[in-house]
Amino acid sequence: MRHLCLLNYRQGHVALDKRLNYEYHAFVVYCDADREWVHNVLLKRMESEEGIKLCIHQRDFDIGKNITGNIDKYFEKSWKVVVVMSNDFAKSEWCQWEVDVVQERRRRQGKDAFLLIMLKTIDS
């Protein structure tokens, strides 16, 4: 992580010291219907090409632990949260619960706690 911070500094970006305490740059919240895009496009681009380490529940969560405990644990290990929005996401009660957790984190940490990606236009 320190190498990435120095590289960003040299390119004119100022590194935030708080990020050094996190294992992941971002925790990604998405619905199962969008899994292919998240794994094949977002994950590939961010980790392979940009050097951004993402926390993806299907890959990184502790096997055998309950889902809510895993979410809490890995939210705490992640500097930011990326929410991938789509119609399927909007219809999922579980995804809505995760967004509620993100909103609570946003209230505690400030406005810059998460990034929203509109993968597909949301129907009203």
Automatic annotation (TrEMBL):
Chief localisation class: membrane
Highest taxon listed in the record's lineage: Eukaryota
InterPro entries documented for this protein: TIR_dom (IPR000157), Toll_tir_struct_dom_sf (IPR035897)
Keywords: Membrane, Signal, Transmembrane, Transmembrane helix
A single GO cellular-component term on record: plasma membrane
GO molecular function: signaling receptor activity
Start and end residues of each TIR domain: 22-124
Subcellular localization(s) per the UniProt record: Membrane
GO BP, sorted A to Z: signal transduction
Pfam families: TIR
PROSITE patterns in UniProt: TIR
The protein's name in its UniProt record: TIR domain-containing protein
